[in-house]
Structure to design on (62 residues):
């Protein structure tokens, strides 16, 4: 992450339920990253197999 180029992304993360993989739960999360793809990749790494989707709610400069 670059200090001067970081942005704060408020996102809605779709996560598969651990018992019923057809059920998707939406959680809001704040991520600080230097690009949208970095934010998405960090969310994918954090949630692993439970990850389903991510939707941008807002983006602001840090």
């Amino acid at each position: 992450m670059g200090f001067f180029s970081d942005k704060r992304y408020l996102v809605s993360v779709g996560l598969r339920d651990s018992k019923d993989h057809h059920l998707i739960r939406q959680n809001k999360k704040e991520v600080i990253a230097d690009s949208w793809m970095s934010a998405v990749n960090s969310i994918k790494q954090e949630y692993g197999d439970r990850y389903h989707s991510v939707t941008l709610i807002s983006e602001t400069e840090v």
Observations:
- Residues 7-61 form one domain.
- The beta strands are 7-16, 24-33, 51-61.
- Helices lie at 36-47.
